[in-house]
Amino acid sequence: MATAKKAAPAKKAAPATKAAPAKKAAAAPAAKKAAAPAKKAAPAKKAAPAKKAPAAKKAAAPAKKRTPNAAFMKALTPSAALAAIVGAAPLPRTDVTKKVWEYIKANKLQDEVQKRIIVADAKLKEIFGKAKADMFEMTKLINSHLK
After folding, report:
1. What is the pTM of this model?
2. DM2 domain: from which residue to which, for each copy (predicted)?
3. What does the alpha-carbon distance between residue 109 and residue 87 come to, in Å, rounded to a whole number?
4. Which of 33, 85, 136, 147 is the most buried (most CB within 10 A)?
């Protein structure tokens, strides 16, 4: 029974290519070697098309630097609760988020097991409105304290 299973791949019809005779010749000796079941003949792989055109395109066009969205760069005034952490000066949303993360990391307010959970202290509890917040909802909670 074991020899019948190994002989089955050799009986399949190969697609009409130039490499087909070589494949049949390689498959026939593999079918005769039923005593060595450790190795199997791998099917022939098609050659990948050359990708010279995209590489030339990348080299020819210089990369443009991304410009930040104006809505993120607009300076906003933080509320009194948020100003206790980031300062009272108007800041863009991106800088507010960076400063809140600096505060969280300096005071070790991330949960030890689940790093995305932030355990709020007294200052953050005023901003979040709850004892724990997920890092993905943190920006939503902070945005309500910006004008």
Report:
1. 0.54
2. 71-147
3. 19
4. 85
Q: How far apart are CA 6 and CA 20, in angstroms?
A: 19
Give the architecture (CATH level 2) of 70-143.
Answer: Orthogonal Bundle (1.10)
Give exposure, 6-26, as e/b (b: 16+ Cβ within 10 Å): beeebeeeeeeeeeeeebeee
Task: Give residue-wise pLDDT tens across range 16-58.
Answer: 555 555 555 555 555 555 555 566 666 666 666 665 555 555 5
DSSP state, residue 119? E
Q: Domain limits of the chain?
A: 70-143
Q: Is there a contact between 85 and 99 (Cβ–Cβ < 8 Å)? A: yes
Distance of alpha carbon 71 from the chain centroid: 26
